[in-house]
Amino acid sequence: MEWKTAVCHQAEIAIRSTKQLIESVSEELFSKKIHENKRSLGELIAHIAVICEADLHIMKEATAEEMNVFYQRCNVATKEECLAALEHSFRVFQKELLQAEDMDHKTTSYWGVTYSRAEWYIEIIAHLYHHRGQLHTYVTVLKQETDVTLFE
Questions:
Q1: pTM
Q2: Do the domain assignments include residue 84?
Q3: Is 131 assigned to a binding site?
Q4: 84-119 pLDDT, tens digit each
Q5: Would you list the DSSP string of 120-138?
Q6: Cα–Cα distances in Å, from 134 out to 109, 120, 140?
Q7: Which InterPro entries would you find in this protein's record (predicted)?
């Protein structure tokens, strides 16, 4: 399996199970927090929904101001909006990855970290899996029934 295809496959696993987790929770719980200093369930879901596309912008050296504009434009609140944004964000990521060339080309984020394109794609996958794990924890702590399989 080619490297890009493998990365897309791992992203698909994360997206599929994240969608199932989102679908398993009631929108009435979106305001709930499991810790006072952390995001609410809805805020976490909204963040996850745009991770792929947001991280691509960061990879392309978007400024902090440009990222703020992006996040304001992608303001999602309902379960339906979050699911649609998640799907859109993944499709943008998938298209970008499969068309990418020069995987050794380095770019720098607005906070100063420099990675090659290959490293950025790995970072995006890690970011997805990290927040999917958080979402699973939220769902578990909020005692929501879920039988979502997190790994193949």
A1: 0.92
A2: yes
A3: yes
A4: 999 999 999 999 999 999 999 999 999 999 999 999
A5: HHHHHHHHHHHHHHHHHHH
A6: 24, 21, 10
A7: DinB, DinB/YfiT-like
Number of domains in the chain: 1
The stretches in the chain having pLDDT less than 50 are none
User: What amino acid is encoded at 118 in this protein?
Assistant: A
Distances 126 to 25, 116, 132 between C-alpha atoms, Å = 23, 15, 10
CATH of the domain at 115: 1.20.120.450
Residues 6+ apart with CB under 8 A from 12: 90
Token pair of 30 as six digits: 């979106």
| Structural domain boundaries enclosing 136 | 3-141
Question: Who's near 150: CB < 8 A, 6+ residues apart?
Answer: 17, 132, 133, 136
The answer to the question of residue 72 being in a domain is yes
The verdict on residue 113 lying in a domain is yes
Neighbours of 55 (CB within 10 A): 22
- Specify the pLDDT at position 62: 98
Residue 102 forms part of a structural domain: yes
